Amino acid sequence: MDTQFINILGLIAGTLTTIAFLPQLFKTWKSKSAKDVSLVMMITFSVGIFLWIIYGIAIGAMPIIVTNAVTLVLALMILVLKIRYR
Fold first, then answer.
1. pLDDT tens across 43-80, in order?
2. Fewer Cβ atoms within 10 A, N terminus or C terminus of the chain?
């Protein structure tokens, strides 16, 4: 398969999974409540995303690096709100 096609496919997949966090972030921010968000899940997820970034750097895969970096920022924002609105 064409490398450019694979990179575009990776960017599309990463973008979709990244924007999936936006509704949760907006809801938590607006309601000032994160009681339904699992703290353990968010910590585990954030560590996993960080490891994906390291993996992406190791193999030089820009779609993995970029989309997971954005996802990590969003996940950390939800984690901060979870702690703040406890």
1. 999 999 999 999 999 999 999 999 999 999 999 999 99
2. N
- Residues 42 and 79: their CA atoms lie apart, in Å, by 6
Beta carbons of 59 and 7 less than 8 angstroms apart:
no
* CATH architecture, range 3-84: Up-down Bundle (1.20)
The three-point CA angle 64-69-70 to 5° equals 110
**CA distances (Å), 80 to each of 16, 28, 55, in order?**
23, 11, 25
Half-sphere exposure of 14 (CA within 13 A, CB side): 22
